[in-house]
Amino acid sequence: MQFKDYYQIMGVARDATQDEIKRAYRKLARKYHPDVSKEPDAETRFKELGEAYEVLKDAEKRTAYDQLGANWKGGQEFRPPPDWNAGFEFSGGGATGGGAADYSAFFESLFGQDFRAGGAGRASPHARGEDHHAKILIDLEDAYHGATRTITLRVPGMDAQGHVTTRERVLNVTIPKGIREGQHIRLGGQGSAGAGGGKAGDLYLQVEFRAHPFYRVDGRDLYLDLPVAPWEAALGATVKVPTLGGIVELKIPEGSGSGRKLRLKGRGIPGDPPGDCTVILAIALPPADTEAAKDFYRKMAQGMNFNPRAKLGV
Amino acid sequence: MTNENNLPQDAICILEEQIQLTLTDLCCACAVHTEQIIELVDVGVLEPLGGEPAQWRFGGASLHRARMALRLQRDLEINLAGAALALELLDEIESLRMRLRATGGG
């Protein structure tokens, strides 16, 4: 397993005071808290930080950790010395958060058993099973039509020896039609089993949409940039627009400019009320890549008295 | 690897739209005591329907709001009023971010 340099993770010196450690934790926790942070590796960083703090804030664990010596580097291959914690008595318990499965193998090897012993015996004889939470990534089309998708979840657990394990769990999930990003699908009774006849917990799947090649989503509303030819925008036209429910015809009013918004009512994600699909016109210029095309542009320049910068006073 | 393909499909629903929770349900799901949920109502993080705590009905969205507020409180070592403020600001950031993305800016 790899050595973890808890001082480096927390960005503090090895002789930092308890107050300095607490301040460093609070600052980094605000930065990497998964509910707050948009850093891509926030969850991993936050777990690492929590683990480092768990050890360094506790005088007993910190002293034991320090005993390993100052020469270890983070990531270095590590095996605890056989008698490394002889003479230390951990009071256990007091975990800041998460289950034992959240800690690294390094932490487990140092503090695992003693640490867990303090927190054992929590479940009452008729306890309801724990709820489980996970995220799933679905296509926008699945939310529009409803769908059945097979998902694979990694479930952390513990084997008979108390080691952390993960197993894969495959589920067929019905994606309810009309679900929005950020909402949760609840699968009743699919969490942990209850103890002593207690009810099983539930499984909650938080829905996220895969980025769509042309729609953007806000709640139930969709937004689509629709390229139109200059003459369609200038003269008006009826053009085809792809919506999630199929192709529809849209009337572009005469004299439309770039950025004009046209609303296709009820063409967003279904619901009560259903969302809209807002089409944003984007005037596309025909390329001037042939002599004939260039001629057209030259004729326009000559024949039209047009100053696009009139409003800028130049 | 276990395969559990035949889930009872009626057990699947959208939490935010099809579920209402009692105070006890919410305490169970968040693994906290009643007082902590009542405190969340007091600081305005949760807004149940009904007068007395025993009659309270929480919308499904309350579950994740409550869990998030409690996580922020615990992990950032702040009080519930602070967590409530963080939650409101996060809501605002999220809606601005969505708007920005929808109009093509992000």
Helix content of chain A: 25-40%
Question: Order of helices and strands of chain B, N to C?
Answer: EEHEHHEHH
Report the strand count of chain A.
11
Main sheet makeup of chain B? 2 strands, antiparallel
Overall radius of gyration of chain A:
30 Å
CATH architecture of the domain at 215-312 in chain A: Sandwich
CATH superfamily assignment of the domain at 215-312 in chain A? Answer: Urease metallochaperone UreE, N-terminal domain
Lateral strand order in the biggest sheet of chain B = 3-4
From the alpha carbons, calculate the radius of gyration of chain B and give it in angstroms: 17 Å
The percentage of residues in β strands of chain A lies in 25-35%
Q: Please tell me the CATH architecture of chain B by its name.
A: Orthogonal Bundle
The best one-word shape of chain A is elongated
Could you name the ranges of chain B where pLDDT drops below 50 across 5 or more consecutive residues?
1-5
Q: Regarding quaternary structure, how should these chains be classified?
A: heterodimer
Q: What would the principal axes of the Cα set say about the shape of chain B?
A: globular
Structural class of chain B: mainly alpha
CATH top level of chain B is Mainly Alpha
- By DSSP (H or I, 4+ residues per run), the number of helices of chain B equals 5
Number of helices of chain A: 8
| Helix content percent band of chain B | 55-70%
Q: Which CATH class of the domain at 215-312 in chain A is shown? A: Mainly Beta
Topology of this protein?
The complex is a heterodimer of chains A (314) and B (106).
Chain A: H1 6-10, H2 18-32, H3 42-56, H4 59-66, H5 105-119, E1 132-138, H6 140-145, E2 147-158, E3 164-175, E4 184-187, E5 203-209, E6 215-218, E7 221-228, H7 230-235, E8 237-243, E9 246-252, E10 261-264, E11 277-283, H8 291-303
Chain B: E1 2-4, E2 12-14, H1 15-18, E3 20-21, H2 23-30, H3 34-42, E4 58-59, H4 61-75, H5 80-102
Antiparallel strand pairs in B: 3-4
